[in-house]
Give the backbone structure.
Amino acid sequence: MPRLCIAHMVRNSLKFVSWKDRKAVATDLKKIYRSLTVDEAGWELSDFAGVRDEEYPTISQRWQRLWPDLITLFDYAG
């Protein structure tokens, strides 16, 4: 089973990204996991896919596949 903490997800996602795009992709991923609600995070993931899937489809596919387990982080938002 893959590691599901956000740090591991981001690190694994960036493996697929060229060096010139890493900062921008990391910034886009940050919008997902720094969202205030599950709904907002879902919208951000959809936006990410719309912008990045042409070049990096593997990233959003993995996040979407693991989404039910990843969103548990919002259970601990304070």
